[in-house]
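Complex record, two chains
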Amino acid sequence: MLNYDKLIIKLLIISIFYWSCSAQAEEKTGTKTKQSVSSSVMNWFKAAKLPDNLQIQGFASQAFISTSDNDVFGNTDNLGGGNFGFTEVGLNASYRILPRLQFSAQVLSRRAGEGGNKGSPRLDFGFFDYRLYSQETNQFGVRVGRLKNPFGFYNDTRDVAFTRPSILLPQSIYFDRTRNLGLSGDSVQLYAESSHSSLGSVSVQFGVWKPIVDDKETEFAILNSNQPGDMTREVSYIGRGTYESNDNRLRLAVSGIWLDVGYDPGPNDRLGPGMLQFTPVYFSAQYNTEKWSLTSEYAIRRLKFKDWGNPLLDNADVYGESYYFQGVYRFSRQWEAILRYDVYYADRSDRSGKQYAATRNKPAHTRFAKDITAGLRWNVTPSFMLRAEYHRVNGTGWLSGLDNPGASAFSQHWNLFAVQASYRF
Amino acid sequence: MSTIKTSCFFFLFICHLFVIDEVRANEYYQIVSHPGVNEKTLSANVLRAIFSMRMRTWSNGDYIKVFVLPDNNELHLDFTKEKLNVFPYQLRSVWDRLVFSGTGQAPITVYSQEEMLSKIANTPGAIGYLTTTYINDEIHVFQIK
């Protein structure tokens, strides 16, 4: 699998290099005089004559995060005031090989505290998409390769700051501490789309996939610590159905995941060959007007452990619950404001976490989080964006254990302030 | 005398409003394509499927190549609101979802109507929109049902 990753990354780098060489060659033949940096960059892109069916896009985002207590993506509650630990740089290419066949890939370098890949490039997706049937507004096709997991409104594009409503996605649904596991998997996916002249359009995706579990972020999020053994990939399923009215005012979606992960114990392991089953269902709704976008998502998440040979794990069969309400207001093309209330419960039958705290040596507030977020976004140009946001959080339920070793050091009530700059081309 | 003047003025003013309305009603722009495209008419539903980048091929199996003006262009704004019944920001987020999930491509952005005209005339399978003053015999104009 790693080799497959590296091959695709190499191919992308080579094609970009080739493209930039040809672009430079074209510029040399021109008789252009001195230009500002930005206009010469624009000309470089314009001069780079891509084949008609090849599209290359990229983005780069840098955030500064400061917290009153607890760490988010690096040491953010230090005396210096914060940390530049959250960086996302991505390169995305798609090629229509034949009218019905497309190849797409995206490589992302992401720095986000102790979790993730600490900036080393990772293949987020790389797959072929073949249209088996296409008749005007009815489409049916298949996708094979590493695919983004279609759930909720934001998971498919979660690393692209421009597509997010805020710097941090609502963490109750889009956990950043299991971002790699949730993001994409090796999959075969069928999709169908149909639209009606007055009723609107419906699209359905269904995939059989194997999750990617080989990073310590995933292991830590599942087992709360690093263990001598390895997580193993099991066959899993994912599906999403979306309805959109023809004016895109109303968007509704239901998504579900059946995720199976196994464990292969290491030498002298105190854990057995256990299984983890994660089966969340998501309901999403959005209403859009010219100025407003109102969005809400609800998730009920069953998490079940078995055969670990550890009573604490084996008895765990809990239903977690999450939801948020979010309003975005567009003052103008340049300015937007956001307000959101986001709630996470690790166990809906123990929302306060008190039962959990009574049996384990961990504080009750690690089992929930209620986050009020207010933010502003300034689209300086269509390709450059600045934003700032403030979070007031009660609870530590979605904080990363890797960023915050020793959960007893968590503070229940905390604030987060973040600013972000993002560029796309 | 002054009443006549005033009525004349109002008459002309009303006429003026009608002229504007007339132009609006007849559309000051049209949906256009490369002359090689076989389709002569498009339904509003098909037009939406094309510009939201879900429909990728013409009925003869050729590529559809979609060209648009920038999101903040007035013609783009009128086209998306009147023909597609959506706002430009919604269309942009539809395209972003396709591009960054890898499940589709974005339309090609051109920066002027001259550029739009030359792309439409010279790219097989191309579709876009132009104000009527730019339309000539080299391109095909759709009837929208």
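Note: The beta strands of chain B are 29-33, 41-42, 65-68, 108-109, 126-131, 140-141, 143-144.
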